[in-house]
């Protein structure tokens, strides 16, 4: 599969998964879920989905992982493809590090203003 084709499919999967999480998936442990990145394997058989949560990251990831079959089934209903990739969910550590850096910079700014 060409890289352009892969990027188009990634973008399409990102959009559809966002819709599924917004419209169909509701769980008390999933607070402030954002899909930060979607990566499709070259053969199209695996889709890595990177997530960030406002709270309860580990519980949120477990809840999403437990609903993987439901999410994949919903994805299959919404796309026109012969096969649906296997879903793999991860916490996006880049977003977590960015938040930590932002907090540190905010603390420095507050100290300078005192």
UniProtKB/TrEMBL annotation:
Any GO BP annotation: maturation of SSU-rRNA
Protein's UniProt keywords contain Cytoplasm: yes
Record Pfam families: RBFA
Chief location: cytoplasm
Localization: Cytoplasm
Top-rank taxon: Bacteria
UniProt-recorded Gene Ontology molecular function terms: ribosomal small subunit binding
Keyword entries, A-Z: Cytoplasm, Ribosome biogenesis
Protein's UniProt keywords contain Cytoplasm: yes
GO cellular component: cytosol
Family: Belongs to the RbfA family.
Subunit structure: Monomer. Binds 30S ribosomal subunits, but not 50S ribosomal subunits or 70S ribosomes.
Chain's role: One of several proteins that assist in the late maturation steps of the functional core of the 30S ribosomal subunit. Associates with free 30S ribosomal subunits (but not with 30S subunits that are part of 70S ribosomes or polysomes). Required for efficient processing of 16S rRNA. May interact with the 5'-terminal helix region of 16S rRNA.
Name listed for the protein in its UniProt record: Ribosome-binding factor A
Organism (species): Mesomycoplasma neurolyticum
């Amino acid at each position: 599969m060409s890289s352009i084709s892969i990027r188009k499919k990634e973008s399409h999967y990102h959009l559809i998964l966002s819709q599924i999480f917004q419209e169909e998936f509701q769980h008390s442990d999933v607070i402030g879920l954002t899909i930060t990145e979607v990566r499709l394997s070259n053969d199209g058989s695996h889709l890595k989905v990177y997530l960030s949560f406002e709270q309860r990251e580990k519980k949120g990831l477990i809840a999403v992982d437990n609903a993987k079959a439901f999410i994949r089934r919903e994805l299959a209903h919404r796309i026109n493809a012969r096969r649906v990739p296997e879903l793999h969910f991860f916490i996006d550590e880049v977003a977590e590090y960015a938040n930590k850096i932002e907090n540190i910079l905010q603390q420095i700014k507050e100290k300078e203003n005192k």
